[in-house]
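Our consortium's second objective concerns turning raw sequence data into structural hypotheses that experimental partners can test. To show how far this objective has progressed, the report includes one record in full. It was chosen at random from the queue rather than selected for favorable results. The single chain below, 98 residues long, was entered without modification.
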Amino acid sequence: MVPQVAYAQTVSGDVNQIVTFLRSIVGVLATLGGIVSVIFFAWGGFGYMTSSGNPESLEKSKQTIKYAAVGLVIVLGAYVFVGIVSQLTTAAFGNVSN
């Protein structure tokens, strides 16, 4: 009845590979979000210019522009957040290989 020693599992793999993968995914999603935002800005601007004084159409176009701006801020905020987290992760763990 001799107890066996149990060791904690060590980390295997490279943290930089995970960080690079996440950065590339977020970069692609940020690019797509930016493109969609520009399309909605153009759509809202076109609707604003062609509203012909119709208050309902004018307000709808203003809302489209406002929501496009909010979406762009969210996408850029997520891109910056992931950049900060990836830098902190790389600084904390560095290259962990086994």
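The partners drew two points from this record. The chain has a mean pLDDT of 84. Residues 55-93 form the longest helix (39 residues). Both points have been shared with the crystallography group to help prioritize constructs.
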